Protein 1
Amino acid sequence: MTNEPRHPRPLRPLRSLGHRCARVAAAALLLALAGCGWTADGADGKTVLTGTVYIGGKNDQPGFNLHSGHTDRGFEPDLAAYLGKRIGFAPKWHDVVSAKREQELVDKASTLVIATYSITPQRDKQVDFVGPYFVTRQGFLVREDYDGIRTEKDVAGKVICTVEGSTSAIAALPGGATLQTQSDYSTCVRKLQQGDIHAVFTDEALLYGYVEQQKNSRKPLKVVPDVSFGYINRYGIGLREDLPGDCDKLREALRDYISEEWASDVKAQLPALVAAYPGDWENRFRPDPQDVDTYSSCKP
């Protein structure tokens, strides 16, 4: 056995060192990119639909959303729960008024807005949409014992309430109609039941939520049949504009939701709407899954 030292083999240590340096450099690059908002998810690498996702919604729209600190009830919480399970996030609701929905997303106060939020060209200039998940005409809510509005012409001379920032607030009502705007529909409904106004004007689907809510009250309500003005509204999920990967995830999940669970959720949450159009409510209010590709900001 000799005491002569072995000759080192320099190539192996240098190669290992090179590999380690490469791995360290790659990790540092990933960390740097993550710090700039980049992750390894999607074509553009950016995603916010993970963990707790804050959603701006309404807390006073029976049938669609009555979220509170302890419970989430309505069609839109059902929709958000489906999307969260499908994509991998936990919905967390907080309140948003109609007039502040775009700003809610631009300021990043909410990750998503799911608040009977109609897709319009003007709004689409500021935010992105995925939808529609509901289609509805606009109509009039009146007291059940009131017959002063039976045709479109009868709206003239009436005092009508709607919500600031809604599509109904810019609809062309007949001449002589007085339009009042409030911050929320609950205020309009309260004024209606107090006799301060003649009707509430907004999306027909929303109005049936209040019909159901007030059916056992001292002053029940009804939707005027076959009287409508304004736009056909298509409700979309709002998100900010720099998230094409998340937009695609929502679009694909929403298409499946409309085919799989939409009808059962409407039956559970909006029974007055279903009862108003027996045999025809899906044709009137359910979007075709293909419409999601047509109207969403991100295209397949």
Note: The chain is about 35% helix and 20% strand.
Protein 2
Amino acid sequence: MTSVAIRPEELRENVAQALGALARSVTLARGEVTVVVAAADYLQAMQTLRDAPACRFEQLIDLCGVDYSAYGDGAWEGLRYAVVVHLLSVGLNQRVRVRVFCPQDDMPVLPSVGGLWASALWFEREAFDLYGIVFDGHGDLRRILTDYGFIGHPFRKDFPLSGHVEMRYDQEQRRVVYEPVSIEPREITPRIIREENYGGLH
């Protein structure tokens, strides 16, 4: 039987107390608790969130990469790559979000949490494939969505929308072949028409 969820303010205090100095910040916004931890403390903080009596986040329900290079219309000045994890405690009926930034933009690396939650292994492969984030300790880190010969990481903000190569089936060779992209890159800015006093607004 699942218990009644505690108030978000109480969850924030419980998480902050359990993590102590391992947390850079524990914030509450829109009823959701978000924890930010340093890469060096990531593994220990995640184990604490799983095992601490007031936390008991026994399920990892999501893990994804984020590229902040174009965040805030280019006003972002922090580290470029982050991993965001959502944890669930079924027994205590509570959720928490954890954000950790990769310490280097040129080679984004973080420890794998696959040893704490097996479900993380698939999500970490996706973040590696799409963002190029390497998870140290992952036993099978390889692409999961793109093709084996794919070059680059398509969710990075500097990856071209048209990609680098295109593929087609060649009748003579009787196989799929890769060729340079033949599409001319272009940017289309939508034309916005605003009516004066639309909906009574001035």
Note: Residues 8-146 form a domain with the Beta Polymerase; domain 2 fold (CATH 3.30.460.80).
